[in-house]
Write a structure and sequence with these properties.
The protein contains 4 helices and no strands. The chain has 80 residues and is an all-alpha fold. The protein has one domain. The longest helix is centred in the first third of the chain and has 18 residues. The protein is globular and about 40 Å long.
Length: 80
């Protein structure tokens, strides 16, 4: 995993945690997190997995996280 991919994974995890706190005060700044994800996505080098790029460009952040964690994002809840 590249440094940029690790930064994306860390930011995706941060996003999930922030969404869980959306009802709390102070409210998390989700727009800042989305902005970082967009900037990190734009900085990915040529040769980056087309699947990862697809997930990130389509804002399928859970699938992108699963992909970066070595899981199959297309598997769904049922492993069979």
């Amino acid at each position: 995993m590249t440094k940029t991919e690790q930064a994306i994974l860390d930011t995706l995890i941060e996003l999930e945690e922030a969404v869980g706190r959306v009802q709390a005060e102070p409210k998390p700044d989700l727009m800042a997190i989305f902005g970082r994800l967009d900037a990190l996505t734009a900085s990915l080098p040529r040769g980056t997995s087309p699947d990862l790029l697809h997930y990130l460009h389509k804002k399928s952040y859970q699938k992108a996280r699963l992909f970066l964690q070595g899981q199959d994002p297309e598997q769904g809840d049922c492993p069979h």
